[in-house]
Amino acid sequence: MLIVVAVIGLLARKQVGALPGAGTASGSSVNGSVPVVNPQQQSQQLQKQVKQSVDDAMKQARPEVEDK
């Protein structure tokens, strides 16, 4: 559970840091090359990334616990 929360936090930080036009709300592009997405699209993209990360984490094999 803690690993999942850490992955989600890292993805959120990466997503926020990758936003070139976080301060602009227009539908135009920043510097004419990167389109600015609205908050709903940004949220959906982040949700997809988090879901993918959680799915990948759930598919990873867990180490065997030895009972003593």
Task: Determine the fraction of residues in helical runs and give it as a percent range.
Answer: 40-55%
**Strand coverage percent:** 5-15%
Alpha-carbon distance between the two ends: 24 Å
Total helical elements: 2
Structural class: mainly alpha
Unreliable segments of 5+ consecutive residues: 23-30
Order of strands, main sheet, comes to: 1-2
Average pLDDT rating: 75
Shape: elongated
Radius of gyration: 17 Å
Give the helices and strands as they follow along the chain.
HEEH
Main sheet specs = 2 strands, antiparallel
Beta-strand segment tally: 2
Descriptive account of the structure:
The protein is mainly alpha-helical and 68 residues long. It is 54% helix and 6% strand. The protein is built from 2 helices and 2 strands; from the N terminus they run αββα. Strands 1-2 form a two-stranded antiparallel ribbon. Strand 1 (29-30) and strand 2 form a beta hairpin. Helix 1 packs antiparallel against helix 2. It is elongated and about 55 Å long.
Spell out the key features of this protein.
68 residues, mainly alpha, 2 helices
Brief summary:
This protein is mainly alpha-helical and 68 residues long. Helix content is 54%, strand content 6%.
Spell out the blueprint of helices and strands.
Layout: H1 2-17, E1 29-30, E2 34-35, H2 39-59
Helix pairs in contact: 1-2
